Each structure stands twice: as C-alpha cells, then as structure tokens.
C-alpha cells in the first residue's frame, strides 16, 4: 500500500512571528507542495489528494493562514472552495500557469477573495498576465544569484506584492533573506530559528492561572492538576525537579507528573505555585515562546501516539510523552540539554534519544522530528525500522494536532483578568 503524508511547515516574518503554514503533501509517487511538480497533472494522484482533503478539511485548516499548492486537476474540481478564503492561500506553479483554463480559474478565485501565491516566480511573459491576481511571490533562495533576487524583490514590492523566501535551510541564506528585506521566510533553518530565539523560562500564563485556581480549590482535583501541568514543558520540568530535590529525599526517583504531585503533596504544591507566581509576576511569555510550548505539547502527544504501534520499545507511553515534552527544554530554558537532563531523573534510553537520537527511543524521537521537517525518505526508513505502518502516520499526526488545538483553545480562551479575580477571592 502506498503511503500518503501531510505536514505543516511554518512561514515566519523577519521578526520570527508565524504568519501561516505551508501544507506539504507527499504520496502516490508525487508531490503536493514543496517538491517538483512534474507529475502534478496525473489525474489519479490528484484524485487521491482530493479525496483525502475532503475527509480532513476540519483538521487541516483551522484559524490560521495556510498555503497550499493546487494542481490544475484540483482547481478544476473546485477543491479550494472546500476551504474558507480567510484561511487559504492558493499556491500555483508552472504547470498551472501554462494551462489557459486553469489561469482563467485563478483569476476567478482572486475575484472571489482568495489570496494567490506563485511558486518559483519569474518575471517572464507567462507570469506577467497573473500579476493583478497575485498576493504572494515565493522565491527559492537556493537557486538564484543575489542580484537577481534583489531585483525581483524590489520590483515585487513596487507592485505591492509580498515576497516569501523558500528553501531557507542555512544561516547564510537566512541572513541574505533578511538583508534583501523579504516579507516572510520558510525552510528548515527558519523552523529552527524559533528554537534559538525563545530562551524564555516562562510558562503559558492562561494555563498557569488555571493551575492556581485548581490548587486553591476547596477540594482540589488531582487529575485536573495533572492535566494542566502536563501540557506545559516548563511546569512539568519545574515540578519534577522539586519532587526529586533533597527536601523530599525519596528513595525512589519520581519520573511522572502524577508521581510528582503525590510526592510534593497539595500543601507544598500550593507553595510552589505561589513561588512561581511571585518570581514570574512580570514575566509575560512572548508569542514565539507560546508557539514553542505548543510544539513541545505536539511532540509529546505524537510520540505517545506512535508508541501504540512501535515494536520492541524499552519505554512506556507516558515516558514517550515525557520525552516529547522535554525535547524543547533547551530552548525554553537557556541551558544545554545535557545539563537540564541531569536535574531530573529520566531513563538512560530517553537521555540518549534526546541528546544523540540513538537506540529505539532515538528512532521514535527522530521520526517525530523528521515528520515535522517533511523528510519523506527519513520518515519511511524510521517507520519501517520501528515497524510502524506508514499509512497510519498522517492520521496520527493530525489527531495529535487536533488534541493540541482543542486544549490550546481551552487555555487561551480563558480570560486572565477573570481568573485573577477568582484567585484573589480565595
């Protein structure tokens, strides 16, 4: 059975703020976004994509700007109309531009309010007829000399078009994109840049307010407290560190959030929350760090889901969850990962996975990372070694994303001022 993968890649502006995601598809020996489009007109492959998207529209695009490449066949099937014009950017490439009927449809989508992006844009005659309908020009920075890039960007800006630099996979390309004043960037280095810039030991504030309310309740619900702490990497790390400190001097090491809560006890847990409240009273987590906390939660859930199918694993599902959650701490806390892991007891297999990606735990962790990066070859190789059916990966990935979105919506919809009022009345 052929496997089909779909993954979201972040697109960021020069200030490191995510403006949207590119939806990349791979399957049936053809690419949907992000790769060569030489097979893009194959009707059977396009029909497979169409059917998949029809079943997954509620999970794929929600509340954010999503860039998606459409083949001529998908345009003719009116697939873009499955999605809200406020959440979709219709990307096209050369195979669409040379097709007269497809070009007519692009102009119509633009009139209807859909935003249009062109992959591998060139100032060639066949592209110029599109200019009135284009909103985004996507330029592959790895394929052009700097002077050509500079001219394209300056002309595009003079026509009020936004330029997105793609293929930003190195620091040199990143610096060139900044120098040439692009509007947004995409690539493996751009995704990693979030990790380098975060270094904010704060926690998600709305989640912390929920924790305060939960621990100060007349009859605290331990399961609710566990759920609140388990979605936040910095709270998880802080509690595990406290529970394993000399103050509690346990003979047995505490390796889960539930164990930590029971070890610390509700009385001392309240004191810990008060201490965090005081020490971080003026610390507002920034947008980049909040997005990064979402990533840690996503990795935790995805790693845990993969454990249902991975064979011969030396760790449990909760340990896989913890591995995914801890994987971001060197970015949330300004310290090397090795030093962080010395502060809390984790199994040697998890340490080896996080530090060196070795062993079967390392394979599982690496698989989650390769999926984030849309590394199709790496995905298949690791899934085969772990004996995970490749045809399940996309559904596991999007189920994990749905859970993250659902819980994050609950967290961020909480009105901070209302929670503060509740806690001050305790």
What is the topology?
Elements: E1 4-12, E2 18-27, E3 30-32, H1 43-60, E4 66-69, H2 72-76, E5 88-92, H3 94-97, H4 100-111, E6 115-118, H5 125-128, E7 136-140, H6 146-158, E8 162-166, H7 171-179, E9 184-186, H8 188-198, H9 205-216, H10 222-230, H11 233-243, H12 257-279, H13 287-306, H14 317-326, H15 329-332, H16 337-342, H17 348-356, H18 359-372, H19 376-386, H20 393-412, H21 416-424
Helix pairs in contact: 9-10, 9-12, 9-21, 11-12, 13-14, 13-18, 13-20, 17-18, 18-19
**Neighbour order of strands in the largest sheet:** 1-2-4-5-6-7-8-9
| Intertermini distance | 59 Å
Shape: elongated
Q: Approximately what portion of the residues adopt beta-strand conformation?
A: 5-15%
Number of strands: 9
- Figure out the total of helices: 21
- Count of discrete structural domains: 2
Q: Do you know the CATH topology of the largest domain?
A: Hypothetical protein af1432
- Determine and state the CATH class of the largest domain: Mainly Alpha
**Main sheet characteristics:** 8 strands, mixed, barrel
CATH architecture of the largest domain: Orthogonal Bundle
In sequence order, what are the helices and strands, one letter per element? EEEHEHEHHEHEHEHEHHHHHHHHHHHHHH
Query: Mind telling me the C-alpha Rg?
Result: 24 Å
Structural class: alpha/beta
Low-confidence stretches: 28-42, 196-201, 415-426
């Amino acid at each position: 059975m052929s496997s089909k993968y779909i993954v979201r890649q972040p697109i960021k502006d020069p200030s490191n703020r995510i403006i949207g995601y590119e939806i990349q598809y791979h399957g049936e020996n053809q690419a949907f976004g992000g790769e060569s489009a030489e097979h893009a007109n194959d009707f059977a492959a396009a029909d497979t994509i169409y059917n998949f998207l029809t079943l997954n529209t509620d999970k794929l695009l929600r509340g954010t700007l999503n860039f998606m490449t459409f083949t001529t066949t998908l345009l003719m099937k009116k697939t873009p109309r499955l999605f809200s014009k406020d959440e979709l950017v219709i990307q096209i490439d050369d195979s669409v531009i040379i097709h007269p009927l497809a070009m007519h449809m692009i102009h119509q989508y633009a009139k209807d309010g859909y935003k249009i992006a062109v992959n591998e844009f060139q100032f060639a005659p066949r592209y110029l007829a599109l200019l009135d309908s284009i909103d985004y020009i996507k330029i592959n920075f790895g394929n052009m000399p700097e002077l050509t890039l500079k001219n394209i960007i300056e002309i595009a800006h003079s026509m009020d078009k936004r330029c997105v630099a793609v293929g930003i996979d190195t620091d040199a390309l990143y610096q060139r994109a900044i120098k040439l004043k692009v509007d947004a960037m995409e690539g493996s280095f751009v995704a990693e840049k979030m990790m380098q810039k975060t270094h904010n030991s704060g926690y998600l504030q709305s989640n912390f307010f929920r924790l305060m309310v939960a621990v100060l309740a007349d009859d605290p619900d331990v399961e609710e407290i566990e759920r609140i702490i388990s979605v936040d990497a910095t709270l998880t790390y802080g509690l595990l560190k406290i529970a394993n400190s000399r103050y509690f001097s346990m003979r047995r090491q505490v390796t889960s959030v539930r164990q930590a809560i029971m070890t610390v006890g509700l009385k001392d847990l309240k004191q810990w929350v008060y201490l965090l409240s005081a020490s971080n009273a003026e610390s507002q987590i920034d947008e980049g760090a909040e997005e990064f906390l979402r990533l840690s939660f996503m990795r935790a859930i995805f790693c845990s889901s993969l454990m249902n199918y991975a064979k011969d694993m030396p760790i449990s599902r909760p340990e896989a969850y913890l591995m995914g959650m801890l994987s971001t701490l060197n970015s949330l806390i300004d310290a090397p990962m090795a030093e962080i892991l010395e502060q809390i007891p984790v199994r040697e297999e998890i340490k080896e996975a996080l530090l060196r990606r070795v062993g079967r735990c390392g394979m599982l962790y690496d698989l989650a990372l390769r999926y984030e990066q849309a590394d199709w070859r790496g995905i298949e190789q690791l899934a085969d070694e772990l004996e995970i059916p490749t045809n399940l990966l996309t559904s596991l990935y999007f189920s994990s994303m749905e859970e993250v979105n659902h819980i994050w919506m609950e967290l961020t919809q909480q009105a901070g001022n209302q929670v503060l009022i509740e806690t001050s009345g305790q």
